[in-house]
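[Discussion] Sanity-checking designs against the backbone

I'm trying to build intuition for which residues belong where. Below is a structure token string of 174 positions. I'd appreciate it if someone posts a full sequence so I can compare it with mine line by line.
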């Protein structure tokens, strides 16, 4: 049988050597995942192998993730959460308040969802939707730049908005 590399060549797609592709099928030869045969091959999720986590944690520890996937959209997150055949998931936000002491044999999902949106506001309050991958301190600065007070005492706290309220900011009772 032909390997997934043959499929890539026919589709004109050339992933780097650290790329795996996910979906319904699995190539016996390469172990790579692909979705929906040839027609779906261009709608791939980039899962990389043996990626350094140095730039993804505030201690700068150079541990490696056996599998790594950048989550840039809700669709990416849904796909990643439905994956089968990978080790346990390890969800990684801003990488603060954690110490990675060894290589991870997991599928690391780096949450990189971006966006800040004002849902509603009136003279007394504003409801703001902030995606989980936004840096907490930058979000506080954004609120101040837009004249939304109340978070200024929570500036300079490390982490992202998706995890910091549970970890670092949770210590302040917020």
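Best answer:
Here's mine. Compare freely.
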């Amino acid at each position: 049988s032909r390997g997934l590399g043959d499929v890539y060549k026919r589709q004109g797609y050339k992933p780097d050597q650290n790329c795996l592709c996910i979906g319904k099928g699995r190539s016996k030869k390469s172990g790579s995942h692909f979705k929906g045969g040839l027609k779906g091959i261009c709608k791939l999720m980039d899962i990389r192998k043996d990626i350094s986590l140095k730039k993804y944690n505030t201690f700068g520890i150079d541990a490696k993730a056996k599998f790594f996937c950048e989550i840039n959209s809700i669709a990416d997150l849904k796909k990643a959460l439905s994956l089968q055949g990978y080790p346990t998931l390890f969800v990684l936000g801003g990488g603060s308040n954690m110490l990675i002491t060894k290589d991870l044999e997991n599928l690391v999902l780096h949450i990189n969802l971006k966006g800040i949106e004002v849902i509603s506001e009136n003279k007394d309050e504003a409801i703001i939707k902030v995606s989980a991958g936004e840096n907490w301190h930058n979000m506080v600065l954004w609120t101040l730049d837009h004249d939304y007070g109340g978070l200024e005492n929570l500036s300079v706290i490390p982490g992202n908005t998706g995890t910091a309220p549970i970890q670092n900011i949770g210590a302040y009772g917020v």
